[in-house]
Design brief:
Chain lengths: 563, 563
């Protein structure tokens, strides 16, 4: 940034490189929208007022506002690399991402974070990272890595590393134990994100006293208000699975509470949803529909977040701020006419985007399996056995005790029951765990994925052991992804070569591959109220009730213990 | 801060050291006042809710709010050292000061800043400093030091040095010239304070584009709103000379503008006013009288400021925040019942205050005068000559052209005219300048001071040269202060041994010395609408219209040039 040059333009002594003429300019500082020209020079805003430029963009009838910021996002959930993610979100106005690379770090450790930093260099988006705080997520599963305070230290000097990512181990924090306190001390004074669904009362006070400064898991307004009073910024989330904007914004509007500590985020949002609804733009639209004043909503999508995360000169249309700008043709509809990053039209910036460099080998070939035979896939069962029961339209499961079909004491899947299998794939323990799964409905084959929160071991389901083994082995050969097997044949696959989580292909290619394989999976009997791969991927996550399967066995979430 | 211990208390597993029971607790984050207990441990707040403690303070009927923060203050204007300043402001609720040691640095350079840092160690007040940006203030006078970007560098690592103090040389900034740009670059990313009375339009945009982030000189609301839109935090000032709360807060209330970027400050406030009205407490009281919601006003006095200056864990009654607290017995009257600093009652903290260490010799003996005789004090005058005319109740002066009494071509003071004299006292140039002064009214003697903004040369006025010389010489012997001479006798003096600006005595002693000498000065004919020393001290400041006298001669502020 050439400050003197910016001053020359602001003072009117030099013509600006680009002037937005006659826009309705959002001022996030006073919550007003006022007419004016905006002069841009060298990627920064020089001034707002009356200006002329070497290039002028007629903005009559358009609202000019700061580029949108996602306060908390897991890029890996889109299954594409940062370059393709930016291509997907920038056109709808998102110019800054605060990402938590929790998934890839669970597989690859510090190498994963390094890869995410490198592969987001030079993109037309400010891409900041938080250090994943909880890798591994739990002691009841085997992750690919352990990301300790010592391993965090080398990243502290990186200009795009901001603070500590969502502190999920809230029982440890509230209990005053565990190595999380080392990490909290290491990141003291920097932003520290929270994740503590329904935490309240003394436990919430303890969590905040430990230094946690934000929360994106609040689903009701009373919960959000209590957390706000405890000093936490509230990240109002609208993602693919979690839809919190309507209830939280309704509470804000009804209570008349100050909004300056409320921000927007997506957390996890799939490509299909991004391409259909846009990204943070969608949070904004829903918020305004609930009656939130547009200027306040836009503040939640920009300046509030920049200020909370101590990002200077970001999130406002004002002198000295980055020229990350969105032109809206309709304010309340949040219809995005054009997006500028560093004063350059997004369409141009994306056209000139170079190819991604080939991924670092350290994040490839991350599937390392034990030698397996069909023999290993046998599951001995008793008269009554523990069964994971899927519930339509929910991520929660039922803990059932049932008689399942068997032969010679071994479970024989089919009918209502599939065989669920987790294989540790990081080459650490060789663990393999099995359980009957009810209500998933696969017929005549097997489905398998290396996307399985949070340790991302192989999760597979089948109605026969032969196809199950084939699906698992194919994932090993592919280095991870989605696989579908029918009658001894691989009929579909989506390679996710990077950590078994992200494709190296374009967003368009990944969308069509996923659409095709999902259609095939439904054709094999998986009901339409279940997303074949995404619903499967949560069956190993040992924090959602009631019964889960990790590589170490069945996990009872209510008792918080392995069976 | 022992985070684990704080967590134990917050979680309710350990009893708190101190609990404020049953208070009405101000929550600055949501702008609400809600009943609750507040648990304090090791100087920090552990939790808000229901707590019991080893010690409990019954707070029924009291409002508990965060300690007040002054966003911009020149401690030197009180003429006492930081220790005595804190003794004066803490009882009315101020627990944090963001001070700009502009005056002492004008006299002593980096040594002055070092002294202010050292002499504020261990006080029961968070005392932060901004680096004076404009020393010397102007090229038209001789200051004691030049504080360059290079000299600033060693202070950047100090935990209590925050950023760049008020950038007064706004014409240089707007003009894109001068070494101020080195300082702006050096302090990039840190808070940078402004000072630009009435700056507007393109010039204001340029000033903001240069990186200036705050303004305390806005006197009308339209001016404040324009500056707020340019991205500046607005410091709403109520000092001894400047009274901006009523007009700015009225504008806030009438417009309904968001208040989160508005803060409070005093800038310059004399001991008498502090002891009578309190400190930031007085800004609050006036703001509430104008109809500002108490919770918003209290936010302006606490969290808004801490956030703007990036002071973590300060300015809120919430877990993990410093236990700097104020109990109010009357919310709208801002009646301070008790103040706590780091969880310790202010009365106790002040009682246990050690003696100040003797000041560093580097800030003593700062008056170095040329050899002077009555001969040097002769002022040759023509038929019509330039006269500084004082205007009742104002700091502005008139530029008069008049015939003044004379003998043999030399001005003879008396009647309406005194002789005004500036003597360079830093041992740099030996400059001496003289001018007739109309309307000051001293009879039968001389008055002199080393407090004279911003270079703090000796400023003296008299109706005869003999007393004038005596007064100047006495200041030299004293090492600075206030002096009053009548008929060849020194009849009053206030020694200001530190830089000629601050006394080493107690606030009480200084107040009574100043009251006594001011009374004597009025008895010598200085009218009651003039403050003898303070009005005098502004006569050398070459930024207030119309005519001033610096050590280099008469300065025409309208033409911005020496005559």
């Amino acid at each position: 940034m050439d400050r003197r040059r910016l001053v020359e333009v602001a003072a009117g002594r030099e013509k600006a490189e680009l002037v937005f003429k006659g826009a309705e300019v959002l001022d996030v500082f006073t919550g007003r929208i006022l007419p004016g020209d905006v002069a841009v020079e060298g990627g920064f805003i020089a001034g707002v007022g009356s200006y002329s430029g070497r290039r002028e963009r007629d903005c009559r009838g358009l609202v000019l506002c700061p580029g949108f910021i996602d306060a908390h996002v897991h890029i890996e959930s889109s299954m594409v690399l940062p370059r393709e993610f930016v291509r997907s979100v920038l056109p709808s106005g998102t110019t800054t991402l605060i990402a938590d690379p929790h998934e890839i770090v669970n597989v690859c450790g510090a190498q994963g974070l390094r890869f995410m930093l490198e592969s987001s260099e030079g993109l037309p988006c400010n891409l900041y990272y938080m250090l994943p705080s909880s890798v591994p997520t739990s002691p009841f599963e085997t992750a690919g890595a352990c990301f300790t305070a010592d391993e965090m230290r080398p990243f502290l000097g990186h200009a795009r590393v901001l603070g500590l990512g969502e502190v999920m181990c809230f029982p440890d924090v509230v209990g005053g134990r565990g190595e999380i306190f080392e990490k909290l001390a290491l990141l003291e004074g920097r932003p520290i994100d929270g994740h503590a669904p329904a935490l309240s009362g003394h436990a919430l006070q303890a969590y905040a006293a430990a230094g946690v400064e934000s929360e994106h898991e609040a689903v009701g307004f009373a919960e959000a208000a209590e957390k706000a009073r405890a000093g936490m910024a509230i990240l109002v989330r609208e993602g693919s699975a979690a839809h919190n904007v309507v209830s939280l914004v309704r509470g804000l509007v009804e209570s008349g509470m100050e909004t300056d500590r409320f921000l927007f985020c997506t957390d996890d949002k799939h490509l299909d949803d991004i391409w259909r609804d846009g990204h943070i733009r969608w949070n904004l639209k829903l918020a305004m529909e609930e009656g939130l004043a547009p200027a306040l909503a836009l503040g939640m999508a920009s300046y509030n977040t920049a200020r909370h995360y101590r990002l200077p000169r970001l999130g406002a249309v004002a002198p000295g701020y980055r020229a990350d700008l969105v032109l809206l043709s309709d304010l309340r509809g949040v219809l995005v006419e054009e997006v500028y990053k560093d004063g350059i039209p997004a369409s141009e910036a994306l056209k000139n985007l170079g190819e991604s460099p080939p991924p670092d080998p350290a994040v490839l070939h991350t599937v390392s399996l034990p030698a397996l035979s069909e023999h290993d896939l046998r599951l001995p069962v008793a008269e009554k056995t523990d069964v994971i029961g899927m519930i339509p339209y929910q991520l929660e499961t039922e803990h059932l005790r049932e008689s399942v079909p068997q032969r010679q004491g071994y479970f024989t899947p089919g009918g209502d029951y599939a065989k669920l299998c987790v294989v540790e794939r990081h080459g650490r323990s060789g663990n393999l765990a099995l359980a009957p799964l009810k209500g998933y409905g696969i017929r005549g084959g097997a489905i398998a994925t290396t996307v399985a929160h949070d340790s991302h071991n192989i999760l597979a389901a089948a109605d026969n052991d032969k196809d199950l083994l084939l699906a698992i082995r194919r994932l090993g050969e592919m280095g991870g992804g989605y696989v579908l097997v029918r009658g001894g044949q691989v009929i579909g696959q989506v390679p996710l070569a990077v950590a078994g989580l992200m494709s190296t292909e374009s967003a368009e290619a990944v969308r069509s591959q996923v659409a095709r394989i999902s259609k095939q999976a439904h054709e094999m009997g998986i009901p339409y109220h279940i997303d074949p791969f995404i619903s499967l991927s949560f069956l190993a996550l040992p924090v959602i009730p009631s019964l889960r399967l990790t590589d170490r066995g069945l996990f009872d979430v209510e008792r918080f213990a392995l069976l």
